[in-house]
Design a protein that fits this description.
Keywords: Hydrolase, Protease, Serine protease. The protein is an alpha+beta fold. 25% of the residues lie in helices and 21% in strands. The radius of gyration is 24 Å and the shape is globular.
């Protein structure tokens, strides 16, 4: 089984007015370059364990929960896929684990995965319990624990003769919640979602602490017979380096970005097999086409100052890396101001948005808050380094600026690092997880939401810009200065 994050982006003409120094958005620049409770019944089904939660228009993290594999806990920023020999989460996260060879891992994993086939009734009750444990009402006031408990009583002790009828019952249950993002996924649709590979070589990564608390990048799961698996990468391997770049100190997201590249090109991955096995350099051929979402150019304002214009079309695995490259090049060319164009950017990988927001914030500044019924969704995300640039920033937004784009826009705005220009944003701040049911179908469930550093709920509200038309740069610097004074006071 495998899982995926979808991300879509589109581009349409802007309605903003700009001064002559910045033409209406590209003509692309001449230099273009460089995202439970366990289900208790007679079958003793495998516990449902969260492995992904992604916000965004058509953006999902998936939770795998299959009789043939043990689902492992994963961060809320990436997707996950498992081979038929899955490593129990305790084996990856226990920093005191002794060295175990691959055969022992497979034997250990297989002992955890024995399960009987699920009945139609089991599938319906399983979907009910996922909602009961994780669903967060998005504000339509149609959810209550009491009403949902009544749903359980309605489906208890009924005989469901066909799988099709079971799926229809699940559809009706989910529709009763009144949440447009919580829905049933037939097996064929779930299977299509499960094919996407963020790294391009068929592996998924996780940060795991060693005995000293130092984070290691481990292969959490891999596609059976995928490029990495065929080349010799195995479950539990530690990623030591990618193309000679040391993986030490990097996040799983950053290492995944390093692995990406054009289709059919080779990437050299240095791995340590097992907990303390041999180190091997393995060449793997990529099987996806990674495209940059970043376009940039330098606009001359006058004889002494110029503006670095960066358009970000979507948040994918290349977004942060390519935006850093573009920003550094523009700064080297003399940019004294920056424009980040997020118009018509519907989102994508939320973690890409979070990482990009961090680039502009002071260390310790709040990027975003997450809220949910489950404590694992109640988090404060903060910047962990000094900002990439300190120049004033304008973020362009419109009504199609959504999800991860809204996280970036609100984070920079609330931390007094940017002013927003354009239209009120879309207002999509919910987190969905996709849970796989035991028959290969799935349910996408709203499990949390994002709240800005100034404690404003993005979902359904959007973000109001500071200016509707492009201001003078003196107004931009004045607004940012006043914001900082108020924030400190």
């Amino acid at each position: 089984m495998a899982s995926v994050i979808f991300f879509f982006s589109s581009f349409s003409p802007s309605h903003l007015h700009f001064p002559s120094l910045l033409p209406m958005p590209p003509p692309f620049p001449s230099f273009v370059n460089s995202e439970k409770k366990s289900f208790s019944n007679s079958l003793n089904l495998v516990d449902k364990t969260l492995i992904g939660a992604i916000s965004g228009v058509l953006s999902f993290g998936l939770l795998l929960h299959s009789p043939s594999s043990v689902a492992l806990d994963y961060s809320a920023v990436d997707f996950f896929s498992l081979s038929s020999h899955s490593l129990p989460s305790s084996s990856l996260s226990d920093s005191s684990a002794s060295c175990i060879d691959e055969d022992e891992l497979h034997e250990f994993g297989s002992s955890e995965t024995v399960s009987s086939p699920a009945t139609n009734e089991d599938i319906v009750r399983e979907a009910w319990e996922i909602v009961n444990d994780s669903f967060l009402d998005s504000g339509r006031n149609r959810w209550s624990p009491e009403a949902w408990k009544q749903r359980q009583e309605d489906i208890t002790n009924i005989s469901i003769q066909t799988r099709s009828k079971a799926h229809n019952i699940i559809r009706r249950m989910l529709a009763s919640l009144g949440d447009p993002y919580t829905r049933f996924l037939p097996p064929a649709e779930f299977s299509k979602m499960a094919r996407y590979d963020m790294t391009g070589i068929g592996i998924n990564l996780r940060e795991v602490p060693d005995d000293n608390g130092v984070m290691k990048i481990k292969v959490l799961g891999l596609l059976l017979d995928g490029p990495a698996h065929l080349a010799g990468v195995r479950q539990g391997d530690e990623i030591v380096a990618v193309n000679g770049v040391d993986a030490g100190g990097k996040s799983a997201f950053e290492v995944s970005s390093l692995l990406q590249g054009p289709n059919e090109t080779l990437v050299t991955v240095k791995v340590m097999h097992g907990n303390c096995g041999p180190v091997e350099s393995i060449q793997v051929q990529r099987q996806v086409l990674a495209r940059t979402p970043v376009f940039y150019r330098l606009e001359q304002m006058d004889a002494t100052s110029s503006v670095g214009y960066i358009r970000l079309k979507e948040f994918n695995g290349l977004a942060k890396k390519d935006l850093v490259t573009a920003t550094k090049r523009l700064e080297a060319m003399g940019a004294s101001y920056f424009i980040l164009d997020l118009r018509d950017n519907l989102g994508g990988l939320v973690q890409a948005g979070i990482e990009i927001a961090k680039l502009f914030l002071n260390e310790g500044s709040t990027v975003i808050y997450t809220v949910g019924r489950d404590p694992q969704y109640q988090k404060t995300v903060v910047a962990d380094a000094e900002p990439l640039v300190k120049a004033p920033v304008v973020v362009l937004v419109n009504k199609r600026t959504a999800s991860a784009s809204e996280i970036v826009a609100s984070s920079l705005h609330d931390n007094c690092k940017a002013v927003l220009v354009g239209e009120r944003t879309y207002g999509k701040g919910l987190i969905q997880s996709v849970f796989e049911l035991h028959d290969g179908s799935g349910v996408a469930v709203t499990v949390g939401k994002y709240v800005t550093p100034n404690h404003k709920d993005i979902n359904g509200n959007g973000i109001e810009p500071d200016f509707q038309s492009f201001p003078a740069w003196s107004d931009v610097t004045e607004r940012l200065s006043q914001c900082s004074i108020l924030r400190q006071g």
